[in-house]
Structure formats: C-alpha cells, structure tokens
Amino acid sequence: MSTDAVPPPAKPPGGHIRLTSHSAGSDAPALRWGAPTAAERGPLVGTTTKRAHRNVIGTHSGAYGVYRALAVAAGKLSREHRADLTNTAPTDIIGPHPQWADPETIVSLDPWGAMVADVFAREIADGVDIRPTIAVTKAQVILPEVHDAIGKARLIPDGRVLLGNGAAQVTKAAIEPVWYLPGVARRFGCSETDLRRALFEETGGMYPELVTRSDLDVFLPPIGGQTIYVFGDPRALADPGVELTARVHDECNGSDVFGSDICTCRPYLTHAIEECIQGAQRGGVGLVAYFRKEGRALGEVTKFLVYNARKRQAGGDTADQYFARTECVAGVQDMRFQELMPDVLHWLGIRKIHRFVSMSNMKYDAITGSGIEIGERVSIPDDLIPADAQVEIDAKMAAGYYTPGQVPGADELKKPKGRGLHG
Ligand SMILES: [Zn+2]
C-alpha cells in the first residue's frame, strides 16, 4: 500500500490526532473467535478513548458511529463518555448455543454481544470500555394489517400472543454487525487480503487498520445492522421440536414504512407477522429478522433511479427488463449477498425452520447451505400483491423464486404491467 492512499485525518478539537495504524499496547485483551466460553473468546474492545485497549478495527454502533463523531465535533458529547449499563440487561437470555463455539458458523455478529456487562463484568470494573453489540427487550407491536386480519377473523386475540386491542407481544433484539474477517472472506470465497484491501479502498480509505493491522481479525463495519422480532417464547427457537415460522426480510423503506406499491415488501412483511402470530398461537414460535439492506443493499438513490429507468424504457415497465434495469444503473442485480444472513439464525440456536415465509431462492439456499433445515415454504397470497408490484413478482418467479403456481412464460414477461411515472 502506498502511504498517499491514506488521507490525512482531520485534527479533532483539543489535542493530538489519535492514529490507529500502530500496534496496540499489551493492554488489549486477546480475542479467540469461536472459543467455547466468553472468557476464552475475550471481549471486543472498540473504544476510541483508550487506544491501547482496542482489539478491533472500527467503532461501535455501525453507521451511527459517524453521528457520534459529529456529536463530538459539535461539542455535544464528551469523548470520554462511558455507557452506564445499569438495568440494561437483556429481558430474555439467548444462548449460549453450541453454534457459538464454531468460528465458521457465526462470522458477522458477536454471539456474546448481549451479555458483555455480565460475562465481562470484571474487565469492565477494571476500566476496559466494553460495550454491548446486541440489546434484547420486550415490546408490543400494533399494525393496521393485523387489525384487518382480526376484523376478517383470520387472527383471533388470545390475550397471550395477540391482545384484545390488536397488539402483538414480542421479544426483540437489535444486533450490530461484527465481522470476523477471516470467516467473512471464506464465506465470499476470496482471500482475506483481497477482502481487507477492497474494504479499505472502496470506503475511500476509511479504515487504514484494515491493511496495516493484519493482527486484528475483527472489524466493526459502518453499516446498518439487523433487528429480530420473536412471537412466542424465544427459548423455543432452538428446539427443533417446536414449530418455527420465520421470515428474513431486507429493508425497503418505501414500502415497509411509507406503503409504496411498486413492490411486495410490506405486504410480505405483514403477511409473515400474521403467520408468526398464528404459529405462536398454535404452540410454536415466530421470528422475523429484519436486515438494514435498503434497496438490495444498493441504497435508495440507486433504487429510485432504477424505478425511473424502468418506467421510462421503450415498451413500458416489463418483468423481462426488471433485473436488466437495475444492472444498468448499479452494475449488479443485487448486492444483498445472503452469505452472512444465516448467522443470526445460528445465534438463536435454530436448527429447523418449519414454515419459511419467503419466496427467495437466494435466502433459502443460504439458510439450507448453512445447515438449517427448511420444511414448508410459504409464498405471498396473490390478493396481497399490489397491482404495480406484479412486474417485480413476475420477474422474480421467472428468475427462480419459489412459487407453488405457474412460472410466467416469455410472452407474459414482455407485457407492460407497471404503471407509468405519472399514474
Ligand atoms: Zn420493496
């Protein structure tokens, strides 16, 4: 690496620049990824205050680490602030599961991340700034689609999973990305050196330690994390004898939050929640894992550019051009790469998904390829597909997505089914 590839870091207010490219002091705790106990694995230390304690590349909070920097720059946050973890312990204990002790099974999150205040209490008391990368809490979720399903008697409140007011009781966990670089490289079939170099160069040289500190194996990447919602008893997730209904969902802000009708994301998400509630009421357990991978991990700007390109192309918005238009703008059809997705399922101890609420062959292949059995595949009911989303669903079925029905033929895929730009 030539040194001119590294931009000079800006001088932060009040003192010398904290460089990261020198070896840590002997105060940094050792890390052994995939070790069977927390003590043998060791704590992740991503603190920016005591450099000598750091044993990872990057900082905590994923993409929000940048906002933390803004808060420090603006003088709103003390750089020395340490989280007070009093009363923040998980509401439900997840694991430890045997999957945690295999360095290849989980490579993109810290299985011990929810319990650091407990398992590393001594180190924290000794002054090491160790932060949770996972938080587990309880909530009630109220969705208009669930109210609708109650109105149509598809769902019946039982006072346990689904309350009389239409609120579903859930346990949820927020999970920050923690990448064990040798394991991530193996998942993608590249060398660790190539992975580190691409991560360094394609972020504009954001983390020089990726290429200067080969002794640091763990990277806290500045990307979105994931959230899981569990309907029923979370401990049952690890019991293959208990029926598990599950969906893994990739973020789509336009549909999930704002109800845009060009895709099936929110209808599929709320359909999965309905299936999860029904499953939990049957004595099973339901799981929705929600990944922050907006617009096939291409981001919303790319996604909206593609929408325009689809709707303005000669012949109108057709399924046969659906993937081509994305590739024209982004260079690839999809950047979600499901290779790391099954990690959260292994964190939860899952061995079998009885009802998998997804049509995606990529998700199915990633999960089964990681050793988790999938029973039935549940596709979205036709009457939940918005009219403008027919282009997407036809294109995906033609590309190999699971459907119990007819796969659309070449003539069908050429028909303009999408609305024009101006309605
Ligand atoms: Zn969508």
From TrEMBL:
Taxonomy, superkingdom: Bacteria
Residue intervals passing through the bilayer: none
Domain GTP cyclohydrolase N-terminal span(s) in chain numbering: 16-202
Record-linked Gene3D superfamilies: GTP cyclohydrolase II (3.40.50.10990)
CDD domains membership: GTP_cyclohydro2 (cd00641)
Family annotation (InterPro entries): GTP_CH_N (IPR022163), GTP_cyclohydro_II (IPR032677), RibA (IPR000926), RibA-like_sf (IPR036144)
Known EC number: 3.5.4.25
EC top class, as a word: hydrolase
GO molecular function, one term: GTP cyclohydrolase II activity
Pfam families: GTP_CH_N, GTP_cyclohydro2
Limits of the GTP cyclohydrolase II domain: 230-378
Stretch list, region Disordered: 1-30
Keywords per UniProt: GTP-binding, Hydrolase, Nucleotide-binding
Sequence ranges of Pro residues compositional bias: 1-12
Protein name: GTP cyclohydrolase II
Species the sequence originates in: Mycolicibacterium austroafricanum (Mycobacterium austroafricanum)
